[in-house]
Amino acid sequence: MKKLVVLGGGESGIGAAVLGKQKGYEVFVSDYGKIKENYKNVLLHHEIEWEEGLHSEGKITEADLVMKSPGIPDDVPIVRMAQSSGLSVISEIEFASRFTDAMIIGITGSNGKTTTTMLAHHILKNGGLNAGMAGNIGDSFALSVSKENFDFYVLELSSFQLDGIIDFRPHIAIITNITPDHLDRYNYRFENYVASKFRICMNHSKEDYLVYDAEDAVIRKYLDENPIQSTLIPFSLENEQEQGIYYNDNEKTIHIKIENSDHIMPTSNLSLEGKHNIKNAMAASAVAQLLHIRNNTIRESLETFQGAEHRLEQVLRINKVEYINDSKATNVNATYYALESMDKPTVWIVGGEDKGNDYEQLFPFVNEKVKAIICLGVDNKKLMESFGGMVDIIVETQFMSEAVKIAYKIAESGDAVLLSPACASFDLFDNYEDRGRQFKEAVRKL
Fold first, then answer.
1. 329 with 323: CB under 8 angstroms?
2. What is the CATH number of domain 313-444?
3. Per-residue pLDDT tens for 64-95?
4. For the chain, which residues make up each domain, given as ranges?
């Protein structure tokens, strides 16, 4: 019996362990930290051996295959040891892909990938396809493969998940955009992060497709300098495309020109607001067109789609003040889109674990739209220095309930209160979902 060692007992690790056991592997899960109670229960239920608080080198080197969870950096001692022992160390995405024949649509990017993934899945399901959604959203890919038998998978993929692939090959790959993020994992070299994103199409041939933002200078530069085998499908807000998708601002229409089809779609009834969401809609529409879903179905799906939780989510209106949860904005670029879409004076709640952020691109929006800033983090020094001279009111706190109460006192009729942190959540919260839920809870208690 082949031995599978799973490093990390979180969502990805548990999914891989369950799938491995189902496929006849002898499975051992090793987590250097603590495994959550609900995950321990899954392991016990499936009679999978596990350890926490250490990595037993002897047991790990006995493996035939090692699956590393995406949260574990490549340069930690246990991973280096496994690799130097000649072991194959792969990601959960790679592992799961070996046990499904489904056609895979893979979506990556610094921002917009969750919305684009959900939107593409929504269109595929409305088009009558037997499609699942997994990866960085919902169930892990491995857990889904262990439970379901989908014909299509729409996968949201982080750079960390792509770092451990070998043969993984999505038939349709999407790169929504690339802006600096997670640079601490890439030796603070942006080009390493960019190359990581482009791994999504590293096994492509001409029969596969790469859908990408034609306005993204980083993506264009990479495509100019590196041979990509994929058939390219660009989407653009600004320029007409001979083969691809583009937006006509005068007519407020999306034009889809793919494989001899030419279809025009009005955007007046799009359920999602903001230009960044027109881009997400174009990317998802490209997938649908490539899979020959009817144009009416695509249009209706774009009009009925409900957005992602924690992504510019309207929470409540209190005393004519809008409260908006954008907790998923864990980098500056995501917050850029949030501030760009604000059309009223804004009390902005920002802060968390800074990943080497450069806030300069936000300055015009802060000067134009933000009336007060509430810094919510353990260390707010950089935020105070960056924005202190731009607004009359800038305060700091380490409690979500207090941040919301302060915002309530400052905001006046016709204003908005926006939680868009531009930072990771781990200094004060379990994750961005926990941060967003605490925000919504605090707003409902006002």
1. no
2. 3.90.190.20
3. 999 999 989 888 999 999 998 899 999 999 99
4. 3-90, 99-304, 313-444
